[in-house]
Write a structure and sequence with these properties.
The chain is an alpha+beta fold and about 120 residues long. It has 2 domains: about 1-50 and about 95-120, no CATH class; about 55-95, no CATH class. About 40% of the residues lie in helices and about 20% in strands. The chain contains 6 helices and 4 strands, in the order E-H-E-E-H-H-H-H-E-H. The protein has helices at about 20-25, 55-60, 65-70, 75-85, 90, 100-105, and strands at about 15, 35-40, 45-50, 95-100. Strands 1-2-3-4 form a 4-stranded antiparallel β-sheet. The termini are far apart.
Amino acid sequence: MSSYKYQDLLKEGYIKIKLTPEEHKEIFRNYNRQSRCEVYENENSFVRDSYEPLWIIVMNILLYPILLLLHGLSNVKEINNDIRSLFNQKENGQFIRDYIFKSDLIKYGKKFTDSFNTTK
């Protein structure tokens, strides 16, 4: 068992926001929008939590018999745990969290909507 505990960003002062595809591309320029993601914002930064796309989860379920054949029946428990972790990605820590600081975006001339400071 893992000792991982999910840290809820909403309790840490972040707000959950929705970005337009153009804003997402401007702020997170190296990340594709195809993966499921949640974006949070506070006074200093943007945070992006990325999760496995739904089609990956479906493919793992459909290809389960082939996975068993390839990995052998001795690894059934491990394969089941891997597939189970895809359904509870937040609780198991099976996601990627990226921080982008607003000061860096300003320094490089990126345009973004600041939900906390509306005077800019």
